[in-house]
Amino acid sequence: MSIPSLLASAFEKRTDLLALAESNQTSCYRVFHGTVEGIKGLNIDRYGDAWLIQSFHQTLTEQELGEVQDFLLTQGDYPVIYNDRSKSNSRVLNSLSEQNEAFALSEQTMTENGIHFTSKLRHEGQDPLLFLDMRVGREYIKAHSQGKTLLNLFSYTCGIGTAGAVGGASKVVNVDFSSFALAAGKRNAELNQVSEVCEFIQSDVFPAIRQFAGLNVGGRRGQRLPKYPKLPQTQFDLVFLDPPRFAKSPFGTVDLINDYQSLFKPALLATKAGGTLVCCNNVAKVDKEAWFNSLARCAEKQGCEITQVEWLDCHPDFPSFDGNHPLKIVALTLA
Questions:
Q1: Which ranges of the chain would DSSP assign to H, the alpha helix?
Q2: CB 295 within 8 A of CB 263
Q3: Cα separation of 83 and 70, whole Å?
Q4: Are strands 80-84 and 51-55 parallel, antiparallel or unpaired?
Q5: Which of 231, 291, 221 has its CA nearest to residue 255?
Q6: Is the pLDDT confidence value at 228 over 90?
Q7: Which of 79, 104, 182, 267 has the smallest count of CB within 10 Å of its CB?
Q8: Strands annotated E in 49-159
Q9: What is the mean pLDDT of residues 156-164?
Q10: Percentages helix, strand, coil for the chain, rounded to the nearest 5?
Q11: 330 in helix, strand or coil?
């Protein structure tokens, strides 16, 4: 099928979703998920008043890009930004016209279920400032945060924390190592007038979560520990754990395939009895049931009883071949 035909099919499948988005004050969603919908590695999203095209496997030719742009403009007369991220480091490779570059570098705002989020389609990082497939996580937290305390780990630009604050959380603590990401998180709080309940801690997550859990802060063998914020032992009603696939620091190694438990255990201990720990794993090859069983075993070893399990499925603008999306999210309520 031609590119316009594939895009037309994708939009047709989203007819109900797009109508619901309009009624729910949502102006950010995926309109083409290429790996499943016909062009591997090509993703197209609406980000507020803009179309964002990203290619992860192969650079679009001028003709292909022109076909995509022409089609998108029939669906909404917004600026079209193309970020070619086809090299192994995933950084943006291509230049833009002077007008489009100025737009891509400027702050925009978009809404999701009436919540305002800051957006820049190009910035000092690599990824957009809001991960759209995490919409279901933000919806869950917003719906369950009234009067509760929330700990948001690996918070990035604090979308989860912002949703919790808008949902009525009494206190939100966002933890991330990136000052750039936290600055965007502070802007999100300002946009929604919830700054007074939001705290932003710039820290490696390992020392932060281990202190909250009442555990000693250690490090990788032979690594000298850098300075880190000193935090009191604290338990929260809601804990949201969304680590990257793999990362190393002097304090430890994040490894979603082989060692999720090194983060899960302290997150569990930082969750109040009767509270809920929401865990995420975005590695496609990790089996959903095997991953859950490892979490259950870890909880049992810590003497924690899981009384309720709720899986959160990505919305249909992120289709999968077999109904099992690479992003797995499970909410665990503890006794």
A1: 3-13, 15-23, 34-37, 62-75, 98-105, 135-144, 159-166, 179-191, 205-212, 261-269, 288-301
A2: no
A3: 17
A4: parallel
A5: 291
A6: yes
A7: 79
A8: 51-55, 80-84, 108-112, 115-119, 149-153
A9: 98
A10: 35, 25, 40
A11: strand
User: 300-324, pLDDT tens digit by residue?
Assistant: 999 999 999 999 999 999 999 887 8
Phi and psi, residue 291, nearest 5°: -65, -45
Return the minimum-mean-pLDDT range out of 25-29, 36-40, 223-227. 223-227
Q: Which of 176, 172, 165 is nearest to 151 (CA)?
A: 172
Q: How far apart are CA 200 and CA 162, in angstroms?
A: 11
Burial of 290 (0-12, 13-18, 19+ CB in 10 A): exposed
Separation CA 239–CA 172 (nearest Å): 10
Average pLDDT of 138-164? 98
Task: Pull the structure tokens for residue 16.
Answer: 């109900």
**Average confidence (pLDDT) over 99-104:** 96
The band of 88, judged by pLDDT with boundaries at 50, 70 and 90, is: confident
Look at the alpha carbons of 294, 300, 305, 307 in this order and tell me if their dihedral is positive or negative: positive
Q: Are 158 and 131 in contact (CB under 8 A)?
A: no
Taking alpha carbons only, the member of 20, 108, 28, 96 closest to residue 65 is 96
CA–CA distances in Å: residue 108 to residues 29, 31, 73, 79, 234: 15, 19, 19, 12, 36
Helix axes 261-269, 288-301, angle to 10 degrees: 50
**pLDDT given at position 143:** 98
**Spatial separation of the C-alpha atoms in residues 56 and 86, rounded to whole Å:** 4
Residue recorded with tokens 């924690």: 304
Query: What does the block give as tokens for 7?
Result: 């895009």
